[in-house]
Amino acid sequence: MTSKEELLTNKIFLCAALPLLKTIVADVPSLSKKFKDVHCIYQVSCLDPDAPGGKYATHFQVNCDEWIIHADKVDPKPMVELEFPSVEAMNAFFKGKIGPKTLPKMKGVVKYPKYFVVFMMALLKMANLLGLTEPPADEETKRLLVKCYFYLLSTGISQLNKNGDEDVHAWALKSPDRVYAWAVNGEESVSAYIRVKAGKTKAGRGVYKRAMPFFTMRFDCLDSALGILMGTADMLQFTRESKLIMDGGPEFGAQLGDFMMKVGDMAK
C-alpha cells in the first residue's frame, strides 16, 4: 500500500509541478514555437491499485498556444502518455532518481513522434530549470524561475491541505478568510497567492485584486527572491537588509516559510 507521504508527494508533482509546463512553454519563445502546430492530449500518469481506475494522472489538452490543464484527472485515451509503474516510481523519477525501475512506459511515440518529441523537450526544460542550484545569468530566465517557484509553492501548500497534511490542514482550519501572497517589487507578473478560509484553500497566479492580502512575502528584486527560494541566502539577514519584506508580520512569514520548506523538501 502506498504511504501517505508518497501520495502527498505525488499530488505535489501532479497538481503543482506538472502544470508549470504551460507557463514554461508560454514564456520560452523557442519552445512555444515548437507547439504552434500541435493538437494533442498529453498525459503523465502512475499506476496504483488503490486509485480510482487504477491510476493517478494529470493531462493536458494542447491546441497550439492554448493549454488546458486537467490536474489530478485521468484521460482514458490520451494521444501521448508517460505511464509510470507506481506512485513511488514517478516520485523518484521527478526527484532525479532515474533508473530501470523508475522509467515510464512511453505511449504514442510511434503514432505521434513529433508531438512526443516536443512534449519531452518541455519536460526537460522544466527539469533543467527547477534543477538549477545557482541563479541563472539572464533576467528573463530569472523571472521565469521565480514565477515557477511561486506557482509551485502556492499550489503545493494548497494541495497539502486538500490531501490531508496534518500541519497545513490544522493551520487552514483555524484561519479566517485570509490571503497570503508572494511578490517581487517592480515585477507584477511575478506573483502568486493562496486564499485560506475555514479549512479550505485555493491557490492563484498573479496579483490578488479583490482586497489587500493579509500577508505578503515580498522581495526587493529577482536575485533576492532566488536567494531565498533556492536556499542560498539567510532569511534573517535578508530581512534585516530589507531584501525580504514581511508585509503583515514576521510570525506569519515564519509559518508560511515552514510550509514552503515542506513543499520544497517533497519536490526535491
Give me some keywords for this one.
268 residues, alpha+beta, globular
How would you portray this structure in words?
The chain is of the alpha+beta class and 268 residues long. Helix content is 44%, strand content 22%. A hairpin with a 2-residue loop joins strand 2 (55-63) and strand 3 (66-70). It is globular, with a radius of gyration of 19 Å.
Summarize the structure.
By secondary structure, the protein is α+β, with helices and mostly antiparallel strands. It has helices at residues 4-17, 20-27, 29-32, 87-94, 113-130, 139-162, 166-174, 222-229, 235-240, 250-267; strands at residues 39-47, 55-63, 66-70, 80-84, 105-107, 178-184, 191-197, 200-205, 215-219, 244-247. Helix 2 packs antiparallel against helix 6 (139-162) and helix 6 (139-162) crosses helix 10 (250-267).
Q: Could you give the distance between the termini?
A: 22 Å
- Give the % helix: 40-55%
Q: Average pLDDT value? A: 96
- What share of the residues does DSSP label as strand, in percent? 15-25%
Structural class: alpha+beta
- What multimeric state do the chains show? single chain
Strand order of the largest sheet: 3-2-1-4-5
Uncertain runs:
none
Anisotropy-based shape: globular
Main sheet record: 5 strands, mixed
Task: Give me the count of strands.
Answer: 10
Order of helices and strands: HHHEEEEHEHHHEEEEHHEH
Q: How big is the Rg?
A: 19 Å
Total number of helices: 10
